[in-house]
Amino acid sequence: EIVLTQSPGTLSLSPGERATLSCRASQSVSSSYLAWYQQKPGQAPRLLIYGASSRATGIPDRFSGSGSGTDFTLTISRLEPEDFAVYYCQQYGSSWYTFGQGTKLEIK
Amino acid sequence: EVQLVQSGAEVKKPGESLRISCKGSGYSFTSYWISWVRQMPGKGLEWMGRIDPSDSYTNYSPSFQGHVTISADKSISTAYLQWSSLKASDTAMYYCARLGYYDTGDAFDIWGQGTMVTVSS
Known about the structure:
The structure holds two protein chains of two kinds.
Chain A: E1 4-7, E2 10-13, E3 19-29, E4 34-39, E5 46-50, E6 54-55, E7 63-76, E8 86-93, E9 96-99, E10 103-107
Parallel strand pairs in A: 2-10
Antiparallel strand pairs in A: 1-3, 3-7, 4-5, 4-8, 5-6, 8-9, 8-10
Chain B: E1 3-6, E2 10-12, E3 18-25, E4 34-39, E5 45-52, E6 57-60, E7 69-73, E8 78-83, E9 92-102, E10 105-111, E11 115-119
Parallel strand pairs in B: 2-11
Antiparallel strand pairs in B: 1-3, 3-8, 4-5, 4-9, 5-6, 7-8, 9-10, 9-11
């Protein structure tokens, strides 16, 4: 089973700042099967990035994904108040899916 | 509008059985796999398993194999998650999610609103 480890656990930043979230896999992941989700309190997760770097429909271009192999990054170029939430990476491999434990992005 | 609509919150006692549902609309239900995802209170997301609604082929996470059953009725565009004997540790929010296919990869692109299951004596 591929384990995804996200860091940091909590990231405290101010609106307007740049956020960099990391997702590291225990073994190599196909970029086609690496995605990022945003979850706000009381809401279902929302797809942000698929294929490691492609933005989902309606996602602002301040969100970007990058990486390959075992190291992937979600970057939010300039934080808006609505971006403070929990972010999860997710991968598919060996017939099942796994999620990272999440990074909470909080207002500083 | 493409959407997944889940059944309402449930409160059950340990040992009881339960089936929750997830109805797809606005798209061809049999063309996309449906997965179920658990979120225990204050915790992260856990993938439980998936079903191909076109033929009801399923596969499960090893963590959930044998503990739950995933099924689907394509005639009514509905997927199900079922327990035969609930435990207190099954208390969680359960989401269904559609696996979308894109030119550069696939991901869970449509999510249901979630069904809260509470198991308590």
